[in-house]
Amino acid sequence: MVIDVTDGIGVCGAGVMGAGIAQVAAASGHPVVVVDKARAALENGRAAITRGLTRQVDRGRIAHEQAEAVLSRILWTDDLGALCGSALVVEAIIEKPEAKTALFAEVGNIVGPQCILASNTSSLSIEEMAQSVPAPSRFAGLHFFNPVPAMKLVEVIAATGTAPDVTKALVDLMQRWGKRPARVRDVPGFIVNRVARPYYAEAFAALGEGMAAADIDMLLEQAGGFRMGPLTLTDMIGQDINYSVAAGVYGSYDGETRFRPQVTQRALVVGGKLGRKSGEGVYSYPVGRGDPQVVTSSKSMDAVAIAARPSTMSLIAEALVESGTLVSIDDNLPEGILSVGSLRMAMGDGRPLRARGDGVAAMIDHVRDMATAGMVGATAQDPAALRIVATLFAKLGKAVIAVPDRPGQLVLRTLAQLANAAADAVVDHVASAADIDLAMQYGANHPEGPLAWVERFGAADLADVLGNIASASGDEMYRPTQEFEG
């Protein structure tokens, strides 16, 4: 089964998602029919596409003639009968199962027997919806991400009765549309809404423990490499929407602890602090996020020494040498230790600083890419020790943000738990490791897949980190999945 460029594409629903799907299909050369019973929605959808294409013309990305061609391929109508010649019909209406099933029952009797029917749902069961479709073998999930023209990921979800050639046809079509299709088993949250939960949850956990919101967001952007900090992002999405997804995934998995929603976020929702749309969320608007609390460095710095055996701290020592700082080798220092005068520091390993007992007075939080990070997190019980750390990193052009003495600190704990969730999804056969990484990069805008990060960090080391966090926090949510324990 192949959907050719000359084949018609039907879209039910002229809202943001439906209009976006229609634009992508038309831009790929298909004749498109958009159906919505509300005439105002049709006009709004047409206007949204026109504005988007006009911006592309103004920026020189496409010619005016190309924009006009895309618009000319789309028919806007309130008549479902106009879908009769479609090779694929994608539903993008309200996220209510009864509305979707009623629509598919009707559309299934209008289109031809070879027409593929797909739902753009982000949360409902594809398996349950398939029961309302005449000939369910031609039905699947096709979950696009907003904004559809810009976001590359599409989750392709087969029900148990979906014909293999239908799934293949959808994957092939998405590739021709310039998308990155990921095959996903029909589970709550699919890939992205399931695996991404710790990114938000860990930020709200740190916020609830008293860490400043701007510090959290800045560290995850600068040291974690994420495009947008989780608290800023949830304010943009809407705290009510983000919390609802968290609660829905948690409930769908019968309260599995790995997906536990955070009480700090719930308090915002209960208090009506929903983010940008309400004028206040984690931050107040229009001011938004302020500056992070950067640690002040000292005027001078004692001699720097590093343990003889290579470790993660060796990368910092090498960068210091390149910056012109003298670094000596000290055979008496334990592996993984860098000293500045009498102050010993090490990379965090999941244990709180107070529990180490090895003479380390400052811990450096994880940094995804030391070369590009503008800020790093550090934990020390003595403010003077933090200033020494800040002086050291100032040599490398990096600022330091204080992280409370908590298990896993912030960046390490967030990346570790994202990896835990991704590995759980592999164990549960949600998708392949490659598709999970692809989904997190192109659907959640993460800088790399969580499992690709594990390959660089080391699965055995990650298991130790997660075990340390679980033991120190007393929270089984952090126990390493079986993928890392072997």
Radius of gyration over all CA atoms, rounded: 26 Å
Q: Report the major sheet.
A: 8 strands, mixed
**Tally of individual helices:** 19
* Structural class computed from helices and strand pairing: alpha/beta
Query: What is the residue-mean pLDDT, rounded to a whole number?
Result: 95
**Looking at the structure, what is the overall shape?**
elongated
CATH architecture of the domain at 8-186: 3-Layer(aba) Sandwich
The CATH C-level name of the domain at 8-186 is: Alpha Beta
Residues in helix, %: 40-55%
User: Segments where pLDDT lies below 50 for 5+ residues?
Assistant: none
CATH homology superfamily name of the domain at 8-186: NAD(P)-binding Rossmann-like Domain
Strand content is: 5-15%
For this structure, the CATH topology of the domain at 8-186 is Rossmann fold
Q: What is the CA-CA span between the terminal residues?
A: 42 Å
Number of strands: 15
**What spatial order of strands do you see in the largest sheet?**
3-2-1-4-5-6-7-8
Structure, described:
- There is one protein chain.
- This protein is an alpha/beta fold and 486 residues long.
- Among the domains are: 8-186, NAD(P)-binding Rossmann-like Domain (Rossmann fold), CATH 3.40.50.720; 304-402, Transcription Regulator spoIIAA, CATH 3.30.750.
- 42% of the residues lie in helices and 14% in strands.
- An 8-stranded mixed beta sheet has the order 3-2-1-4-5-6-7-8, with helices on both faces. Strands 10-9-11-12-13-14-15 form a 7-stranded mixed beta sheet, with helices on both faces.
- Helix 1 packs across helix 2, helix 8 (197-208) packs antiparallel against helix 15 (411-427) and helix 15 packs across helix 17.
- The two termini are 42 Å apart.
- The model has no long low-confidence stretch (mean pLDDT 95).
